[in-house]
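As described in the Methods, two query proteins were run sequentially through the folding procedure within a single session, without resetting any intermediate state between them. The first query and its resulting C-alpha cells are shown here.
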Amino acid sequence: MPASRRSRSVARVSRSALTLALALPAAASFTGCSGGDEPTEPQAVGSSPTFHKDVEPILQRSCMGCHSEGNIAPFSLTAYDDAKAVAALMVQSTKAGTMPPFAVRDTDECSTRHAWKGDIRLSDEEISTLEAWSEAGAPKGDPKDAPASFVPKSPELPGMTLEVHPNEPYVTSGELDEFRCFVIDPGLTEDQYLSGVQMVPGNHKVVHHGIISIDPEGTSASQAGPDGSFPCGAGDVPMGLDVDMGSLQMLTAWAPGTDPVDLPEGVGQLIPKGSLIVMQIHYHPAGTTADPDLTRIQLRLTKEKPKYGFLYHLIGNFDDPVNEFGFGLLPGPGDKDGVEFLIPADSKSHVETEQLTVPAPDSPGAQQMPFPPGTRIYGQFLHMHYLGFDEKVTVTRANGSPDQPEEECLVHAPKWEFGWQRSYSYDAPIETLPTLDPGDVLQIRCTYNNSTENPYVVKALKEANMVSTIDVTYGEGSTFDEMCVAGLSLVYPMP
C-alpha cells in the first residue's frame, strides 16, 4: 500500500477532531445531567412511594442538572407538578435505558474491570420506585420529607489560574444547528502544564456542546474573521480549516451537566508557550434569534512538571485494510471491492471493525501514532454518526498478566445515541488502569442501522427528497456519511 494512503487513514483521525461536534473526549470526568448530590437510595413509604420522600432525591441526583430552569432540557423536573406531568414518560425512558444519558454498561459480551466516574444511571430499585410512584397516581407526599432544595453544581473550575473567552459575544439564529469555531490567545509566554479545564457557556439555552483544542503552531489564526471566529461545522472540508489539522490537539469538551475536567493528582498535559485555543461550539437555536453568547474557558495551569503526562488519541476512521503497521479496517459483511468501509442500503445491523496495533516507540508506526512507554487508559469516548447504535472497544495484549488480562473489554455502549455522546473515565487508581504496550491490539467494533427502521434515516431521506436508502461509506458529514472512532485519554510516566 502506498505510504501516502497509509498516512491518510491515520490523518483522518486528526482532521476529524474538531468536527466530532457532539463527541466528548474522555479527559473529562463527566456526570452528565446530574444534580450534584450523592446517590440516594429510595425508601419505602406506606403503600407507595411519594414525590418528596422517594422520587425527588432520584431526580436531583440524575436528572435536574439538565431538567431545570435555564438548562437545555425541554422541561424542568424541579417542581412536583412538572414531574407529575411526565411521570409515565420518566418510567418509559428509564426502563428503556435512554435516560439518564449514560450509554456504557456491562453486557453479556463485555464486563469492565472498573466502575465509571460520574455514573448517573438509575439502579433497578430506583427505576422500580419511579414506576410504583407513577402507577399510584404520582402522590406528592409530605413536603417535610423533601430533601434540601436543588442547587445546581457550580460551573466554576476549582483552583482556576486563567480565564479566557472569545473577542466578542456571538448571536446564533435560525432553524438549523450551527457549528462555530473561536480562536483565542491565552497569552502563554512559557510552557505550562494543564491539570484542569472547564467551559462555562454564556447562554445555556443554545450552547448544546463544545470542544476545546490546543493549536501549538498557531495556524488556526489565519482562518478567523475580525471577531476571531469562523464556521466549522460537520461536513466542511477540511472542517472549515485550511490548515494542518494534525497540529490541533483535542483537549476536552463540554456538554450540559459536565463537571470541570479535574485530572488526577500528579497528572498534567503540556501546553506549549505561544499556543492558541480553538473552541468549537455546537449551537442549537431552535428557530429563534438567541441572546448573545460569550462562553468562557477556565484553565488551571502550573509550571511544575507532573509525575504523569496526559495525551489524547483518536483512533479509527480507517477505510483501508490493515497495513504493515497493524492499523486499518478488517473484512466485513457486504464488502464489494475488497476490504472497504461500506454500510449497505437497507442493512439493519451492519458491523465494521477497525484495528490498531500499539507500535514500539522506535518503530515507523510510532511516527503516526505514538504511545509513550508505560501508557495506561484513563478513559474513552465513542463516536459514530446517525446510523450507529452500538460500539465496543477491546484490547488483546501481547503479554497478559493476572492484573492485565490477555483479552479485555474496555467499554461497550449497546444503545449508543448520536445526541448524547460523552466521555467515560474509569473510577480507579492510575496504577490499576488498563495498560497499552507495544504489540497490544485495539479493536473498535461499530454497528449501524441503515434502514427505514432507523428514525434518523427516515428524517434524512425526507429532507433530501429521497425515497430509498443508499450505501453509506466513510465521511465527515453526519447525514449520509459514517465514522467509527474511539477517543482514548491516556496517562503515562513523565520522562
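Immediately afterward, the second query was submitted; its sequence and C-alpha cells are:
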Amino acid sequence: MIKSTQNGASEAAMGSPLVGAPLLQTMLRLAVPGVIGSMIQMLLIVVEIFLLNRAGTTALAAVATVFPLVMLAHMLSAGAIGGATSGAVARALGSSDLLRANSILRSAVVIALVGGTVMGVFVTIFGSTFFYWIGARGDVLVAANAYAKVIFFGIPLVWLFNMMCSVLRGAGAMTRSALAMGSVVLVYSVLGFWLIPEQNTGDSSSEIMTAAAYILLASYGMGLVTVFSLILWPGQRIRFGEFRVDWPIIAAILRAGLLAGTQSTATIVYSLIATGLLGRFSIDWLAGYGLAVRLELVMVPVIFGIGSALIAIVGAYAGAGQRARAIEVAWRGTIANIVIVGTIGLVLGLNPTWWCDRLGADQVASHCGNTLEILGPFYGFFAAGLGLYFASQGLNTLLWPVLGSLLRSIIVASVLLWMNFDWFSTPDPILWLIAGAMGFYGVFVVLGLRFQAWRT
C-alpha cells in the first residue's frame, strides 16, 4: 500500500521536485556533484594505470589491451542502457508515477545481471581472439587473458553498480551516486597499493594481472554495498518494494538503451580506427596523439556531469507533460557544455604546450601539440553532439545523436578503403579528417534535433 502524506495526497501523486525549480540553481546542484562523480571515476583509471605501471610494461600493455572492452561495459551500463534508465526514472517521477519508478529500479537489476552475464560469456569465448587481433602477443596476450578471465567473470557486479547509480542520477541524487563511486576508488586505492605486487617481486605478469582484477572486483563489490545502502537510506523516494518484474518496462528501457548502445559501440570503433591510422606513421606519433586525446579525460567529466543533470531535469519536465520547457532546458544545458568544453579546446589548441610539454618527451610533445592545434578548436562540436545525446535520453529522442555518431565513424573508417599512405609525409590530413568528422557530428546532431525531433 502506498503511504499517504499528511495532507491526504499519496506519495505517488507527488511530482518531481525538479519541475518548476529555479533552473540555474537546480543545474548547479545536480551538475557539480555529477562532474565530481565522473572525475572520481576517471581517477580510478589513473590509479590503475599508476599501479600497473609499477608492475612493469607487460602489465600496462595487457590492461591497455583489455581496456576497450572494459570501457564498452561502462559505456553500456552507465551511459547507454544506464542513461535510458535514468531518463525513464526522471520521466516517471515527473509524471508523479512512483510505482513505475520503483518498477524501473527492479527492472534495472534484472537488466544489469542479464547484460553483465551475456557480456562476460561473450568475452570469455572470443576475448583472446580480440586481444590477438589488436596486437597482443606472447606474455602480453597471456597477461591480458588472465586479467580478462577474472574481470569478465565478475562483470555483472560492474553492470549492477552502474545501473543502480543511473537510477540515483535519474532521481536527481547526484551526490549519492558520486559517494558510491568514491567508495570504489577508495577501496581500490588502498587494496591496490597494498596487494598489487611490483615488477621486482618475482611475480609473473599473469599473477600480477589476476591480483589486480580481483582487487577491482572487490572494489565494485564494496561500491554495490554503498549504492544499495544509499538507495535504502531514508529520504530516497524510489524503493524496491515488491519483487515483481515488469517485462514491458524492461523492453522499453532496452529499446532506448540498445539504440544508445549503438553510439557507444561506434565510439569504441571510431577510437580504434583513429588510433590505428595515426599508429601507421611512428610510435612517437601514436604516443603524441594518445597524449593529446587524453585531454578528453578532462572534458568528458564536464560533459557527463552536465549531461546527467540534463537527463534528470529534462526527463522530469517531459514526464510532467511540459515538453517545450524540457526542450528549452536541453538547449540551455547543451550551450553551457559547448561554451565550457569549446573554450578549453580552443585555449589549448592555441597554446598546446600548456598540456603537451608537461606530460610528454620532446618528440612526443611535439606531435601532441600538432594534434591539439588541429583538433582543439573542434572540441566544442564534440561537446554539442555528446551533450545532446544525454539530453535526448531525457526526452527519449536518441535517433539523431546515434545516427550522427555512426556517420562520424563511417567518415573516418572510409579512409581505410581509399587512402594511400604514400600520399602524405605527415599525418596532418588524417588529423584534419578526424577534426572534420567531429565538426560534422556536432552540426548534424544540432540540426537534426532542432528541425526534426525537437520541433515545437
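The mean pLDDT is 84. We note this only descriptively and draw no conclusion about the first query from it.
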